[in-house]
Amino acid sequence: MTIARRDAIALGTAAFGAAAIPVIGARAAVDDVPTANVKQPEYKIESGASLHVLRPAKFIDPDEVFWKVNTKKFIDATGVDVKVDFVSWEDLRPQLAVVANTGAGADIVISFGSDPHIYSSKLVELTDLADYLGAKYGGWYDLALLYGRKWNTKNWIGLPIGGGTGPVLYRKSWVNQAGYDKVPNDHDGFLALCQKLQKNGHPCGMSLGHALGDANGYSEWLLWTHNAFVVDEKGKVAIDSNETIAALKYATELQKTMIQGTLTWNDVGNNQAYTAEQISLTFNGVSLYYTLLKSPDPKLNAVAADTFTQDTPFGLSKRKPQSAAPLNAMLFKHSKYPNAAKEYLRFMMEADQYGVWLSNCLGYWCQSLKAYSQMKFWQSDPKLTPFAGALDSPFYDGYKGPISAASAAVIANYTVVDMFASVVSGNATPEAAAKQAAKQAERYYKSA
Amino acid sequence: MDATVDVGIRHLGFTRKPDGWVTRLFDNKAFLVFLCLLPSMGLLLVFLTYPLGLGIWLSMTDTTIGQPGQFIGLDNFIDLMDDPVFWMSVTNTIFYTTVATVGKFALGLWLALLLNHHIPFKAFIRAIVLLPWIVPTVLSAIAWWWIYSPQFSIVSYVIVDVLHLRSTYINFLGSPWPARWSLIVANIWRGIPFVAITLLAGLQTISPSLYEAALLDGASGWQKFRRITVPLLMPILAVALTLSVLFTFSDFQLVYAITRGGPFNTTHLMATLAFQRAIPGAQLGEGAAIAVSMIPFLIAATLVCFFGVGRRKWQQGEAND
Fold it and tell me: For testing the chain B interface, which of A88, A210, A420, A440 should be mutated: the one with the most B CBs within 10 Å?
């Protein structure tokens, strides 16, 4: 980031503005991250080095503010000129494709989950850096290992920075009224709760429309809690299974308890309905809770106070059946200053910087390194707990197959979502829908 | 005469030098025509031919976002033949275009006839009529998205909470046919101004003397419409129809903003499916193949509109019969 004086003032003001938001655990020094004594790798910064970094635009202000503050610290400490561009989410992947295909432009691109696997031949391996960070900070979570390393190897091609997840958010008073103190963890119990909620006039609502995040999250939850999956370990399509049929039948029953219109919801559909107090329970990221909590409307603050969070019900799954697509940093081979770039990534992941950024992101981003789960801010609000372990999951888009362009295409084409939507709306039988979904998935997995 | 002048000039000491090749070149009519066409040809080449050519080339490769593809011939198209979602988008597009165009022209013509009368605040009303067309489609699409919301629809609010005609809100987009009709209504709303204003312009070129003559002959209102208005409106109707069909056939924004092709792909048009496969799905080759598949339909639709509706001598530069 080339920070001119005017920018520095703006930055200072922005940091001040962010500090004025009553954020949880905002502070400058970090003393609650347990670290192991590991020798720090020495990256000899090339003389005259400068770096260009692309990363996704902010979710919330502190994300961008503290990223800039940390970058400024790096510039002051090393004299390396770093320019960070915050790119809107839709534009990031096309820009990444241009950088990768032209072999020019940004040195570091921080993009999403599967991207390093698509561009692996163009990336500098980050194994030494990742091993050092893992050893120092209590190891990487499962999803970080999956997304960071080349499939079935120990070679790191991406550096997972953090991720967000979508657990259950529910209205405590309405769940209590239905006779429960929390959301049951088994299929039958969860269905019974939703039936009672609906009877009381407070239905639940999960999207099965073309909502990229929400609908894919909910339909993957349906699959994984029934031990169903899109592809097997070898990348062979395996969605046409008895487990999938069971998931489809369960989804049909659950759909009957929901508010109408969930098949038309995009990613804001459930947020709107929940905020309008029309639904009692949904799966969503922390943004919903945060918006209610920070609203100037006291009525919404009351909704926030009555909102509780929990991991999504496990059903038949042994581990948390929620995934998260991590932010994943890539260093391109065309970079003229690979050492400076590695040093920058190391610097940004160290507790003094990362801890400040993370604690101010309020659960929008969750750590990829386990030691950061010990930070006290996670305990400051028990409602953040389900978000803390976002990457502590074995499940990912395209589970159980290799992470590839095919899994990303299946998600973008709503193959699994549409399978559920066509069955719960009575437009297809479970058997026909599963066959159709398998056929659609095979279009992309044919080369695997 | 000539010889005298020539001699005179020579006498004054002027000799006309033979023309240089540059002068001769610029005197050449064919070259001048070529030269004057060059800028527009360049623009066409860069902004039309190249993207079209690239699209056709991409459709014959397996390019994805991130990986340059290999030439695979017609494999993408053969694959699509076997894809029910693609065929659904084809039938949706044809249905959507046909019904929406008929709706737009019926209502647009009606509106144009009304506006052609002398009414108070004529200019003001004509400006208002254009509004749906002036507002950026993405904005009006978001407005329609709210109108069709299963929870917050103003239409449902009026019907349920104000008029008490129903007990539940209407689920406009929740199942395939209601969703398709809802999108068509939004498209008609957006398309009417274009048709109305274009036809109004056509109506105003019809000489009032024709109507006066018809009046003297004792023609009824319907006869005047059928025998004077319709035939004289045909040329502009053909042009408006062609453009309108092209716009509707390649519509993207309304559908993408309101349903994104859902529920379960039943409202995808070819344009939205091409985008979904090519950009979020990263399969550029496949998306391009869907887009290229639109071309034959577009050409056919244009030919039908132009020669079917507007089969008049004016196309050849002669007067109508």
Answer: A210
Interchain proximity B276–A278, CB inside 8 Å: no
CATH 3.40.190.10 for the A5-165+324-388 domain, yes or no: yes
Nearest-angstrom CA–CA distance, A228 and B38? 62
Q: Is 0.85 exceeded by the ipTM?
A: no
Q: Does the model's pTM come out above 0.80?
A: yes
Q: Which of A99, A264, A435, A444 to mutate: most B Cβ within 10 Å?
A: A264
pLDDT means per 10 residues in chain A (448 residues)? Answer: 40 40 49 89 93 89 92 95 90 86 91 88 94 96 93 93 92 95 95 96 94 90 96 92 96 96 90 94 91 92 94 94 90 95 96 93 89 90 88 91 86 92 93 93 78
What phi and psi values does residue A287 have, to the nearest 5 degrees?
A: -55, -40
With contact defined as beta carbons under 8 Å apart, do B258 and B138 qualify?
A: no
Give the right CATH number for A168-322+413-445 from 3.40.50.1360, 2.120.10.80, 3.30.420.240, 3.40.190.10: 3.40.190.10
B176: closest chain A residue by CA? A427
Spell out the domain ranges in chain B. Answer: 86-312
Query: Searching chain B, which residue's CA lies closest to the CA of residue A205?
Result: B151
Q: How far is B194 from chain A (nearest CA, A)?
A: 30
Would you call A375 exposed, middle or buried from its count of C-beta atoms within 10 A (0-12, 13-18, 19+)? buried
Q: How far apart are CA B247 and CA A255, in angstroms?
A: 38
A322 contacts: CB under 8 Å, gap ≥ 6: A165, A166, A167, A217, A221, A283, A311, A312, A393, A395
Sketch the domain layout of chain A as residue ranges.
Answer: 5-165+324-388, 168-322+413-445
Fold of the B86-312 domain: MetI-like fold (1.10.3720)
**What tens digit of pLDDT does each residue of A203-231 get?**
999 999 988 888 999 999 999 999 999 99
Listing DSSP states for A186-255 in one string gives SHHHHHHHHHHHHHTT--B----SS-TTHHHHHHHHHHHTTT--SB-TTS-B--SSHHHHHHHHHHHHHH
> Does B262 sit within 8 Å of A414, measured CB to CB?
yes
d(CA A48, CA A132): 26
Do domains A5-165+324-388 and A168-322+413-445 share one topology? The answer is: yes
Dig out the tokens for A127 from the structure: 């194994």
